[in-house]
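Chain A, query sequence.
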Amino acid sequence: MLPTLRRKLEALAERREELERLLSDPATVADQGRFRALSREFAQLEPLSSALAEERRALEDREAARALLDDADMREMAEEEIAAADARLKNLEAELLALLVPRDARDDGGFYLEIRAGTGGDEAAIFAGDLFRMYQRYAERQGWRVEVESASPGEHGGFREVIAAVDGSGAYARLKFESGTHRVQRVPETESQGRIHTSAATVAIIPIEDAGEPIELNPADLKVDTFRSSGAGGQHVNKTDSAIRITHLPTGVVVESQTERSQHANRDKAMKRLRAMLAEAEAERRAAATAEVRKLQVGSGDRSQRIRTYNYPQGRITDHRIEGLTLYDLPNVLEGHLDGLIARLSQEHQADELARMTAQ
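Chain A, predicted structure.
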């Protein structure tokens, strides 16, 4: 491990010890807001502390085994213990490097999932529906809650646009690399000649704003319109102007909510999503300077980037951001079995961040 990275680990270990002292201070305990913040930071550093302690034990075991090499009767056993300790140290180094990558403060929370049909007409809308179902199935397996906030169905199935709130621990961390253009290659059901068509849909993963740091909005910057809901939801929903559309005039961002019975509830939902979108736009702006060196383009705002192709005739799914990331398991992926893709993308992100840290 590079000395610069080792020093960063040592600094984090020292911070963990400092946090332990602070959390036992009665003054900290009396300040509940500060106590919660420090407790969260302590919990995040605890795995790193445990890994460092395990590394120290492995180093001690190796040194103890080396001391036995001169004993002819113990040499074979010592060599085995040294080999075992070396293997443990190699695994622990990889674990420590992964823990060294700065965590996004938004990783623990949920997100808004926005899927829109792109090029391809009706087939693009059907594909957008397939993507939504894929993420919905994955969320169900994780025990997350998915609530559709607005949807515009396609004429022949799927969605021209669908927006949902996904709530679950660590949800954003798992799916934050899904933003971008997804392309499908297949023979549409309406194609009589059996020709393969290419269609696309865009996916946006927008983290839900941290409740502890709300974005302040000037009412003068907001244009609020009411309209009659068009979706299902009973007589009251469809016969009153309870749906809300809010336009943020300085940025042109528009949000809608029409799933609740009351105008007040829809307004609250729309304001929450507007804040999340403005916070994401600010994060994208800050990340723009370094986005060109990040293969996964998280927070770059480049929704037009083609990130993945789903090829039905070959049962193949290819992620274009990572060389060699091709799986011949398309049916299972579309059923929500995304762990293989997510693991590879997370590993690539860690490698990129470590390379950036080393360069700095």
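The CA atoms of residues 203 and 232 lie 24 Å apart. The first strand starts at residue 111 and ends at 117.
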